[in-house]
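Can't paste images in this forum, so I'm doing it all in text. The chain is below; anyone willing to post the predicted structure tokens underneath?
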Amino acid sequence: MSEPATAPNRLHHHARRMAGRDPHERHRVSTPLELLFDLTFVLSFGFAASQFAHALAAGHYGVAFPGFALASFAIWAWINFTWFASAYDTDDWLFRVTTMVVMAGALIFAIGLPRMFASLEHGDHVSLHVIVLGYVVMRAGMIVHWLRAAKADPDRRAASLTYVAWNVIVQIGWILLALGDLSRVATFALAAPLVFFELAGPWFAERKYGGTPWHPHHIAERYSLFAIIALGEGVVGTVAAVSAVIEKQGWSLDAGLVCFAGIGLTFGMWWTYFILPAAPILHAHRERSFIWGYGLVLVFAAIVATGAGLHVAAYYIEGEAHIGPLATVLTVAVPVSIYLALIYALYSYMVQAFDPLHFWLLLGTVAVVTLSVAAAIAGVGMTTCLVILTFAPAVTVVGYETLGHRHQLDALSANDAEPET
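Text version of the structure:
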């Protein structure tokens, strides 16, 4: 009996030749190691959301937004490994150990987030030492991965070595930036070009040197699982924050409404994420992967920011927030709005067309978000406004389940893409 095509032979304990996976391999799914890898980023999400929420609740927006931007950049390290594994996962002992080094770096990065936020709030320079150390450890593991691929896959050696060189050069830049102990303005001014080079590296390697054999259905699944983890962290964080309020004040209507809003928004955002026809479009049009893959970085950040906004709501009902009800509602309404706008934008890009149905769904979504904000301005209770906001993603859910399926089939047909079965 032949072995299933879902993974390399795991009974082979020696280091395997990293020659590249078949991008059309049938029944390709995420491995247990990839799922464990994803879970290491839960700690980063938790710390990022907690620190972001604390700064927002205090009204320290100059700390909240730059700190969250730096914290969210950890998602980029996840993306780099995920695309590599889709192309070259051997699941041998060396691949596993090297991946665990990358995971250790992710944990170090997470541990450094509170210190970085604290330096933004209380110091005259930005403390990047720990998070850059974690980032360098992650990248060191990836350099080993890419060197193995370069050795074993001569047809794509130029692309692999481009990834190696790009990683080394940019990490030197991050190390120098961290050692500089620069002011906030100088740090972010110099970080901007480093971020640009980080993002440009894969584009250069994939487009100029032929790219890597990543699997479209596998990569779409990996992103969807990561979105679920981010959404789950929002639910856990909201319940934990509200539980702390209940321990001090007991059950209240406001606490119950925040829980309802958190769970409702999570369900709605989960549902809307899966209207994206990612796998069939990527299978038919691999050239659309960059905008899709990079755009979802912002989607993941919006998910985490929504969870942070719900934390702020818990702070508000506990009496520990230094911002008003309108600002509290906006901490949730803004990331939810960004999330939904990005989903529609990515859908339109992937199918290379704008569906007229989406105009009406977006109009309905804007109406719900506007109503929740207007209610806060009019003095309606903050938790009631969040309940109203919960129905923003529901507009898309209802529209998709009634008419959207047929529209999506038409869009896939126009792109010569087969719908998933």
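The first helix runs from residue 32 to 57. The chain has a mean pLDDT of 90.
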